[in-house]
Write a structure and sequence with these properties.
It is a single chain. The chain has two domains: 5-196, 2-enoyl-CoA Hydratase, Chain A, domain 1 (Alpha-Beta Complex), CATH 3.90.226; 200-244. The protein contains twelve helices and nine strands. The protein has helices spanning 29-43, 67-72, 81-91, 107-113, 130-133, 141-149, 151-160, 166-171, 184-196, 200-213, 218-228, 236-244, and strands at residues 5-10, 13-18, 51-56, 96-100, 103-105, 117-121, 125-127, 164-165, 177-179. A six-stranded mixed β-sheet has the order 1-2-3-4-6-9, with helices on both faces. It has a three-stranded mixed β-sheet with strand order 5-7-8.
C-alpha cells in the first residue's frame, strides 16, 4: 500500500508531501492518521529537524476534505482527530512552511493555515467552500483565517466562497509570497534554509512566544514574554566566537 504522506529529511529540513495525486490529495481520515504520525515524530526531533515544509504531490496541494470518504463512512480515530492534528502542526516547535499550488480548498486551506508561513504558486486556488456544501468549519477556519488576513477579508472569503489566486493570497497577507509554479519548492526550501542559518533554539523560542502571546492582551503578552522567554540558547557562545572571527 502506498504511503499517503511522504517524508524526506534534508540536512535539518523535513519535507512532508501529501501523496494522493490521483485524488488531488483529498484529505481522507487515513491520510490524517499518517500525517499525525509524522507530526508527532518531528515534534520530538528538535535536534535533528529545524524546519518543516508541507506540500502536495501532483497537480494540487489538496482539493480539501475527502467527501467520498465521508460518503463511504470512513471515520477518523476520534471525533476531532483532524482538528487536533492541525493543532499539533501549529504547536510543532519548528517553523512550518506550506508550499501551495493548484487547489487549496476548505479543509486544505485550514491545513495550510495551521502552518506558520505560506508560499503560493501562481496556479494556486484558495477558497473556503463550506457554504457550497452546507457545512460549517470545525478545523479552525473561523479562528485562523481572521487572524491571518483580518476580520473583514476573512468574512468576505467565508461568506462568498470565492477563489483567491496565489498572487491575490500574497497581496492580502494570506501567503508570504507568490512565485511561478516551477519555482515553488525552490522558493520554499530557500526560505527554510534562510531560517536554518539562525539558531534553532531561537526559532523555537520565537514561534512559541508569538503563538502563545496571541492568547493575551498586549500588556499580558509583554508580561508573558518576560516570564516565559527561554533566554540564552546553548549555541550563544559558539555563535559569538564566529561573529568575532
Amino acid at each position: 500500500m502506498n504511503e499517503l504522506v511522504l517524508r524526506e529529511d534534508q540536512d535539518g529540513l523535513a519535507i512532508l508531501t501529501l501523496n494522493r495525486p490521483d485524488a488531488l490529495n483529498a484529505l481522507s481520515p487515513s491520510l490524517f492518521v499518517e500525517l499525525r504520525q509524522h507530526i508527532d515524530s518531528i515534534a520530538g526531533q528538535t535536534e535533528e529537524i529545524g524546519c518543516v515544509i508541507l506540500c502536495g504531490k501532483g497537480r494540487s496541494f489538496s482539493a480539501g476534505n475527502d467527501l467520498k470518504a465521508i460518503q463511504t463512512g470512513e471515520v477518523a480515530p476520534s471525533r476531532h482527530f483532524q482538528a487536533e492534528t492541525l493543532d499539533a502542526i501549529e504547536s510543532l516547535p519548528q517553523p512550518v512552511i506550506a508550499a501551495v499550488h493548484g487547489h487549496c480548498y476548505t479543509g486544505s486551506l485550514e491545513l495550510a493555515l495551521a502552518c506558520d508561513l505560506m508560499v503560493t504558486a501562481e496556479s494556486a486556488k484558495l477558497a473556503d467552500t463550506h457554504g457550497k456544501w452546507g457545512m460549517s468549519p470545525t478545523w479552525g477556519m473561523s479562528q485562523r483565517l481572521p487572524r491571518r488576513i483580518g476580520l473583514l477579508a476573512a468574512k468576505e472569503m467565508m461568506f462568498s466562497g470565492r477563489v483567491v489566486s496565489g498572487a491575490q493570497a500574497a497581496a492580502i497577507g494570506l501567503a508570504n509570497r507568490c512565485v511561478p509554479d516551477a519555482e515553488l519548492m525552490s522558493a520554499a526550501v530557500a526560505m527554510a534554509r534562510d531560517f536554518l542559518q539562525n539558531s534553532w533554539f531561537t526559532l523555537r523560542a520565537d514561534k512559541m512566544l508569538v503563538n502563545q502571546g496571541l492568547n493575551y492582551t498586549l500588556a499580558e503578552g509583554l508580561a508573558f514574554e518576560r516570564k516565559n522567554s527561554p533566554g540564552r540558547g546553548p549555541d550563544l557562545e559558539e555563535r559569538l566566537k564566529q561573529f568575532g572571527s
